[in-house]
Amino acid sequence: MKHTVLVMGNYLQPAEMQALEESFDTIHLWKEKDPEAVLQARRNDIQGIASVHSVPVSRTLIEALPNLEIISQFAVGYDNIDLVAAKERGIAVTNTPDVLTDDTADTGMALLLAVSRRVCEGDMYVRVGKWLNGNMPLGWSPKGKVAGIVGMGRIGQSVARKCEAFGMKIMYQGPRKKEDVPYVYEPDVQKLAENADYLILTCPGGAATRHLVNADVLKALGPKGFLINIARGSVVDEDALITALIDKTILGAGLDVYPDEPRVREELIKMDNVVLLPHIGSATHETRKMMGELVVNNLRAHFAGGPLLTPVKAA
Ligand code: 8YV
Prior knowledge:
Number of strands: 12
Number of domains: 2
Structural class: alpha/beta
CATH class of the largest domain: Alpha Beta
Number of helices: 12
Bound molecules: 2-keto-D-gluconic acid
CATH superfamily of the largest domain: NAD(P)-binding Rossmann-like Domain
Distance between the termini: 28 Å
Order of helices and strands: EHEHEHEHEHHEHEEHEHEHEHEH
CATH architecture of the largest domain: 3-Layer(aba) Sandwich
Radius of gyration: 21 Å
């Protein structure tokens, strides 16, 4: 008999969804008119969850499913999952690291270049015919500038290598100095911002990094500084960011993530010194396929009694 897997959202591509459906009895929660009623009716059947960063896997949900054994997350970040509740019950948690590192770092570089060189403004300038009346304002060169990277994990290191290729200097902040990276470590995020021209956020979300970037950090970044966020919206105090952008406390921002996705604050939408992306860090055909395969293969490995491919160590 097939094991039952609760699928939290519509994010798997057709081939990976088909693979999931072939191996498991699936409940597509996001399609259900009354998800609570479905959960209640099937609570004893559900042994696995295929989750995604945008839908919470809360203690309440975990406790409501007495036979849950594994949560297989379609993301490297897992701040939506109550890991403590999962651990208490001995529930395995897996994620999708490595396969999305370069695409996510590329998204950071795309934002860095777009805000610096006014790429989106330039595109609009041509389309609306403004070029016919004169050249657009100048941008700023990343070469020789300092990238202050918050979080020197896999994605942070990939961003660092790409910034080096653009002739930038690298400093970083994180919970500890990494012996295997050649960059300058600064434990204090405000001091990092003081030294940086670009503050690039690549750290995990969650309680430990909530509002790490606040008004003081933005002030330290200063009127020639840019903020790039490919981490989680929760890492930035958004009110402080909006004030800093309006007051020109910082020069601009490139954002892929927001605290209340997919809702983006009206103030940001109106600004031309920000570039806004709809959380596309890992959104390529190639990467999303590999992420989907990991989600399915972690579930298969668990129920076959084999080792998990990419377990979350903290779980
Ligand atoms: C999203 C991400 O999971 O990996 C992460 O942590 O935030 C992204 O890859 C993906 O966009 C699906 O929503």
